[in-house]
Amino acid sequence: MLIKLFPIPLLIILAFPISAESRCTVRSCTALASYYVWSDSNLTFISQVLQSPLVPYSTVNFDPILAYNKQVANKDSVKAGSRINVPFPCDCIKGEFHAHEFNYSIRPRDTYDKIAREYYSNLTTVEWLQRFNSFPAANIPDTGTTVSVVVNCSCGDADISKEYGLFVTYPLRPGENLSSVLTQANLSSDLSGLVQRYNPGVNFSSGAGLVYIPGRVDFF
Ligand SMILES: *[C@@H]1O[C@H](CO)[C@@H](O)[C@H](O)[C@H]1NC(C)=O
Ligand SMILES: *[C@@H]1O[C@H](CO)[C@@H](O)[C@H](O)[C@H]1NC(C)=O
Ligand SMILES: *[C@@H]1O[C@H](CO)[C@@H](O)[C@H](O)[C@H]1NC(C)=O
Ligand SMILES: *[C@@H]1O[C@H](CO)[C@@H](O)[C@H](O)[C@H]1NC(C)=O
Ligand SMILES: *[C@@H]1O[C@H](CO)[C@@H](O)[C@H](O)[C@H]1NC(C)=O
Ligand SMILES: *[C@@H]1O[C@H](CO)[C@@H](O)[C@H](O)[C@H]1NC(C)=O
Ligand SMILES: *[C@@H]1O[C@H](CO)[C@@H](O)[C@H](O)[C@H]1NC(C)=O
């Protein structure tokens, strides 16, 4: 299967190191954020925290999100424990890495921990929030300010495949592994080698951290 998809050029490329630090060689692209739905979250909330030019905040029209989530049967009650793919612009930040900066409006008693692990469903981390915000972790102002939430993303790696462009930023959860991640993303297990190469050195069973997986199930 892989041989069919990637004839001779891939074999040549693989002879060279492919782990080059991810400088931005592609300016920007569309990416998807895999949002793990916690109980009491809903599409209104998701479209609020992940709003961008691709997903305007709305309490009624979720079409920009639903277009990537044919599996959602009822938009008014997304299943807790499922995942929703949310499109967002993947930009080149400071010429160094791909990400998008979301602005989150602080509400009373918010903490970095709550913002990262709950509101942004582990799409970012406390450490990564602290890199881009100067509020003291124990004392974020109560209201009237925004926190910059930087969510990493990928525009692919032309050294691995030139054909594939849309990637999901996927926060791993405890109990998952490469095979279960592919299954839940509806990707064939034939792609496990390719997906691992997109995430060099990553342990898919580690229970935490971000991985990048292909986002268009109909592509292959
Ligand atoms: C959506 O979720 C948010 C956050 O949990 C909650 O405050 C809001 O009431 C919910 N909206 C609906 C329509 O359920
Ligand atoms: C999974 O992929 C199959 C075949 O490509 C498709 O028919 C099915 O609707 C997909 N399921 C989901 C949940 O996307
Ligand atoms: C986020 O906030 C910053 C600083 O206030 C602003 O420069 C930027 O345009 C905002 N981004 C979006 C997407 O609203
Ligand atoms: C985020 O990760 C933490 C630590 O693994 C976990 O407790 C929490 O449930 C996760 N959040 C979501 C929304 O899955
Ligand atoms: C985002 O990417 C940068 C650069 O590769 C990395 O240093 C950082 O740890 C990543 N953040 C998260 C939350 O994975
Ligand atoms: C991967 O996880 C699935 C579901 O949790 C489990 O059934 C399977 O045995 C695991 N596979 C490996 C290789 O650990
Ligand atoms: C990957 O992480 C899991 C969970 O921490 C660990 O049990 C396993 O040994 C790790 N695998 C490798 C190859 O490091």
UniProtKB/TrEMBL annotation:
Residues 1-22 form the signal peptide. Coiled coil: none annotated. It holds the Pfam family LysM_RLK. Its main location: membrane. Residues 104-147 form the LysM domain. GO terms for biological process: innate immune response. GO terms for cellular component: plasma membrane. One of its GO terms (molecular function) is transmembrane receptor protein kinase activity. Residues 168-214 form the LYK3/RLK10-like LysM domain. PANTHER family: CHITIN ELICITOR RECEPTOR KINASE 1, CHITIN ELICITOR RECEPTOR KINASE 1-RELATED. This is Chitin elicitor receptor kinase 1. It comes from Hibiscus syriacus.
